[in-house]
Amino acid sequence: MSIMVNLPKRGRGAVTAQLSTRFALPAREEDGDWLDMAETLDGPAPKLRTTVTEEAARSILSRNNSPDIPFDRSINAYRGCEHGCIYCYARPTHAYLDLSPGLDFESKLFAKPEAAKLLRKTLARKGYTPAPIAMGTNTDPYQPIESQYRLTRQILELCLETGHPVTITTKSDRILQDTDLLAALAARKLTAVAISVTSLDPALSRKLEPRAASPAKRLAAVRQLSAAGVPVWVNVSPIIPAITEEWIERILEAAAEHGAQGASWIMLRLPHEVAPLFREWLEVHFPDRAEKVMHLVQSMRGGKDNSSDFFTRMKPQGVWADLVRARFNKARARVGLNNQGPELDCSQFVAPDRHGQLALF
Fold first, then answer.
1. Shortest CA distance to 244 belongs to which of 280, 174, 197, 306?
2. Checking CA distances to 325, which of 30, 136, 248, 252 falls within 20 to 30 Å?
3. Which residue has the higher pLDDT, 188 or 47?
4. Taking the CA of residue 296 as centre, how many other CA atoms within 13 Å lie in the half-sphere pointing to its CB?
5. Region 332-353: what's the mean pLDDT?
6. CB within 8 A of 155, min separation 6: which ones?
7. Is the pLDDT of residue 4 over 60?
């Protein structure tokens, strides 16, 4: 049952926990009068807690043939993400589980404890051909529960053991816990890291990404990883019209000052249930400019909240998009950041034994 919430919950990004109706699930709301009576009789509702369900996954390496993204395989050891970023394009995946892409996505999490073992079996298959594995493409591999499960670290250990290239995208300084592995991988040209920074305003960050690291901590992670020899890029992602776009130049300047090698950007995308969730968020936090923000979003997406067409979904169109693109490219060139990631070495890969040892031949 979904619960209509008029005010944001402390430390959460989404405003509501409405179930998706995309798969013909009934949309239901609790009666306000009943809620008043329940609170009178039983007291306030319990605080929303994060829960983690362990998932017995059958496979861990996901493949794609999209022309819009630069990798063909990825790993997501977790479902859902406690960072609670309101703009997260992965939120709709919780609808497949009959859970809310809103509050459920950031509080009802799933972990795959066998992730590294499953990857070992995949890498050991006859005929497997290595190419960089992308981590952090759906949910953050360094969200808070990584401190408990250490699934990302286990995967990095396996990549180092087998000489397999891997990339990481995160908005958490928790990545510094694995500096030893990342430095060892980087020394062999087997890894690159991208850290997402949306603004330099901690108050805005708490609204957008309530349980992610502050912008200052993310930049500090850029500096420390770079000092350890790890190639680091900064993703100014997503850029939100009239909310975060004012920070573009300052983020790029800070990225260069902290040792980043390059930078990229992605415009806000609002697929499926993300669009209504984002609209709710705007009405709560920025009611004065909600209409303007959505007008600009639609101006770049053919008059719609989102465009899912190949070749255009990652390339916003229109005057405002062209202006942002020009600003970003000019600022990036001015501070000396690259616009392409490093080439990782796939030639070092040695297939492991399925049971934990490297093959000799």
1. 197
2. 136
3. 188
4. 18
5. 95
6. 75, 77, 115, 116, 119, 135, 166
7. no
Contacts of 9 (CB under 8 A, 6+ apart): 48, 103
Tokens for 355, please give them.
């049971």
Q: How many angstroms separate the CA atoms of 114 and 120, rounded?
A: 10
Residue among 57, 59, 98, 107 at smallest CA distance from 80: 107
Looking at the predicted structure, is the pLDDT value of residue 361 above 90? Answer: no
3 state SS for the chain: CCCCCCCCCCCCCCCCCCCCCCCCCCCCCCCHHHHHHHHHHHCCCCCCCCEEEECCCCCCEEECCCCCCCCCEEECCEECCCCCCCCCCCHHHHHHHCCCCCHHHHHEEEECCCHHHHHHHHHCCCCCCCCCEEECCCCCCCCCCHHHHCHHHHHHHHHHHHCCCEEEEECCHHHHHHHHHHHHHHHCCCEEEEEECCCCCHHHHHHHCCCCCCHHHHHHHHHHHHHCCCCEEEEEEEECCCCCHHHHHHHHHHHHHCCCCEEEEEECCCCCCHHHHHHHHHHHHCCCCHHHHHHHHHHHCCCCCCCCCCCCCCCCCCHHHHHHHHHHHHHHHHHCCECCCCCCCCCCCCCECCCCCECCC
Cα distance between residue 135 and residue 167, in whole Å: 6
User: Between 43 and 270, whose confidence is greater?
Assistant: 270
Which of 65 and 172 is assigned the larger pLDDT? Answer: 172
Q: How far is residue 144's CA from residue 141's CA, in Å, rounded to a whole number?
A: 9
Compute the average pLDDT of residues 120-141: 96
What does the alpha-carbon distance between residue 97 and residue 127 come to, in Å, rounded to a whole number? 33
Q: What is the pLDDT of residue 353?
A: 86
Closest CA to 119 of 144, 94, 155, 93: 155
Average pLDDT over residues 219-236: 98
Q: How far apart are CA 282 and CA 174, in angstroms?
A: 29
What predicted TM-score, i.e. pTM, was given to this entire model?
Answer: 0.89
Per-residue model confidence as pLDDT tens digits over 15-40: 777 776 666 555 555 555 544 555 55
Answer yes or no: are the C-beta atoms of 190 and 160 closer than 8 Å: yes
Enter the tokens of residue 33: 């009068």
